[in-house]
Design brief:
- The chain is of the alpha/beta class.
- The protein has two domains: 257 residues, 3-Layer(aba) Sandwich (Rossmann fold); 29 residues.
- It is built from eight helices and 13 strands.
- The strands form three sheets. The chain has a nine-stranded mixed beta sheet with strand order 1-13-2-3-12-11-10-5-8. A two-stranded antiparallel sheet has the order 4-9.
- Strand 2, helix 4 and strand 3 form a beta-alpha-beta unit.
Length: 393
Amino acid sequence: MGAKTGTSVTKKPTPSVASYFAKASLESPRKRKQRAKRILAERRLGLTRIGLCLTISLTISLAQASQDGEAFSTANDDWDGYSQLARIAQEELGAHRVHLLGELDYSKLRPNDTLLIAAPQGELNHIALIKFLQSGGRLIIADDIGKASKFLEEFKIGTRQAPMNPVRALLDNPSLALATPTILSSAPGKEMRHPLVHGIAEVVTNHSGAFQHPSLSSLLAIKTEDGERADIAISAIIAGKGRLIAIADPSLFINFMLRYPGNRQFAKNLFIQIKAEISAQPASSGDLYLCTGNFLQVGSFGSEPSLRQLLQSQLQELKKELQKIQGQGLPAQAYQVATTLLAILLLSQLLRLRDIRVLWKRSTHASKSKQKIIQQNQTKDVPKKRLKKPFFA
């Protein structure tokens, strides 16, 4: 058999950075500088694109991770989360009526809705909340001495730390004081309590606050050894329509504390009362909006949403879709792997860019040294002309 003959096509090797600058050193300084600037511009553009992709991936991953691990978050299944409280609300009211929000749009609230705010990290919109209550809305605020205290001052409700000498406490720890239902009125053989504390013997608090108010209905209180009463849960009717319920300890409803029967029953009673009030309305409509921690606030109650509010709403929907893709599509591990790969790629590009700059400096320095040597040689070969004094001077 004869050997096959033919021309073999060999690929040209990709020139390295060093060979490129060795070749470029033969060009004129102007062309060499233009070529280097063009390469550096392309590198910067590539780094910008990689950085943008890395930022988006990190933002989605960190946002989801921070939301899942944040205290009082309804997405947090750990001991300090509100995931069990959200499930209790869905069981009592129905999942279609419960909305777990990271952004509260006041323009979407209706007078027959209920808003539950726990441990807010930002200042509340006083005007929107007061209008919501005056129109007949229900507002439940669970916060100790935090951002909600300024809003409660609008109703002459002061906040302070709970007394450290309770009559009863869990494990004899005064920070874990036991609160009992407040007796509103006492008749022979019958004690009147608020319906929200029905079936509750005691509630375990956790570094609770306490309220100071002139004449509001007390729900739960810590009794002290001095015979005083520190209210930790109160209720008020606003403008004859709305209802305000203030709770001085947001940790009453965290997952760890809901294992105590009184805490769990208190949470159920809140949603049972909401359901009863919704059913009593003609249209039997009304939803629960649950906001915790560092949630956003947009819009104003009782007005049409502006263009900016609509855009913010669309951006929020886009954020939800991205989180849904992570939840239903790729697992969190895949996002971490992708983020790590992007970080490695970005680092390699940075190192390559650094090498290019170093070689460019070396090439420029070598070129300048070469030109200096040539100029010196030219100066030696061609002697300077000696100026003679003009004879007519």
